[in-house]
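1st attempt posting a full record on here, be nice pls
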Amino acid sequence: MNQTPHRVAGKTAVVTGGRGDLGSATAALLAHHGAKVASLDVAGIPAAVSHENISEYDVDVTSEDSVAEAIRRVRDELGAPDILVNAAGIIGAAGASHTASLADFDTIFNVNVKGVWLMTKYVVPGMIENGAGSIINFSSIHGITGGRNVPLYHATKGAVRLLSKSDAAAYGAYGIRVNSIHPGSMNTRMSRRSAEQSDIGPEAYYKQLVGSNPLPRQGEPNEIAYGVLYLASDESRFTTGSELVIDGGYTAV
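the predicted structure (as tokens):
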């Protein structure tokens, strides 16, 4: 993080999942590069980073009232968001589709899909007023390829991918760009939970997931954050409806 911090200077950014590994790395990098960052996450999770440009807000992304109140506070305290990063997500229980319960389905779709939609619903009006904005939605490599370990999670990430493209088409006329980012296997707590749930064990799981990649390792959170920074900045002003895949080459082979 030693570059001159001007890439998103003067912008207000909202980052959901801001106390998780990928969200906190993203919030810190955007703050370092000059944005006023609203880091949103569920109450009770301690802040992962501190920075003079980061303000913490509690939110339940599955609750319309909670989202509406959080965005109202952000607008009052930091200004209308120029950037929305939907990084909040859960992985859910492992197992084939027939082993999941209705509660499993509702929980993961509420967080991973409805949460993205609700945040967009309440942030976009301000972006329309300003005639500009950048929304970055966290999907996954498995929103492109699918996978056997956590099919409901993969289904939610496929939904986020297509919601991003649809919103890009809908909001482009207002100067709003919408893109999805697709991390591969990352060195995060969520990835470790997924590996621990695997029926083949963590070591075999990681070997299967990254062992044959052109870059045969897990990614680090900051490597995703730099991708978000590009999509959030004016450097990507002609980029919308795209998929930024950061996966060590997993989807290339």
